[in-house]
Design brief:
By secondary structure, the protein is mostly helical. It has two domains: 68 residues; 77 residues. Helices cover 79% and strands 8% of the residues. The chain contains four helices and two strands. A hairpin with a 2-residue loop joins strand 1 and strand 2. The longest helix is centred in the first third of the chain and has 38 residues. The two termini are 29 Å apart.
Length: 146
């Protein structure tokens, strides 16, 4: 194997280990949070399932973004993450309303302003990632020409 190939494989291995380490840290933090939430929301398994789905995808996107750091693929993963956040919160909140049944009382909470804020922030993040990808591509083309 050539020296350049060895350097590339060492760099890829290092990047993989960094991504795995960061994902493990994020996973442990979310697991501790899940243990805390289970005590209070054990009667509402649907919302615990939503949290579990959100936690796993957070770990997945953390790994993907850290692994592809320094490449244009990082921006694609970040855009996919933001799109997931939009779809997930629309689905999880049933388009902005949550209904909880407590004994003989049915409580409905309207979360539409919060949902709109989450969607707006995610759209801003998508715009930031698109401009970041354009900037990354233009920087690479300048380096290639020089």
């Amino acid at each position: 194997m050539s020296e350049e190939g060895t350097r590339k494989s060492e760099k890829a291995g290092s990047r993989f280990l960094k991504a795995a380490a960061k994902s493990i840290v994020v996973g442990i933090v979310l697991w501790v949070l899940w243990l805390f939430l289970v005590r209070f929301f054990s009667d509402y398994l649907e919302y615990l399932q939503y949290f579990t789905i959100f936690a796993w995808t957070t770990v997945f996107f953390t790994f993907g973004e850290k692994l592809t750091e320094g490449t244009i693929y990082r921006y694609g993963i970040a855009i996919a993450r933001d799109m997931f956040v939009i779809v997930f919160f629309i689905f999880a909140t049933d388009s902005g309303t949550i209904t909880v049944d407590l004994a003989n009382i049915s409580l409905t909470v309207g979360l539409l302003p919060l949902l709109a804020l989450i969607v707006f922030i995610s759209l801003l993040s998508i715009a930031k990632d698109v401009t970041g990808a354009i900037d990354f591509a233009s920087e690479n083309s300048r380096r290639t020409r020089s």
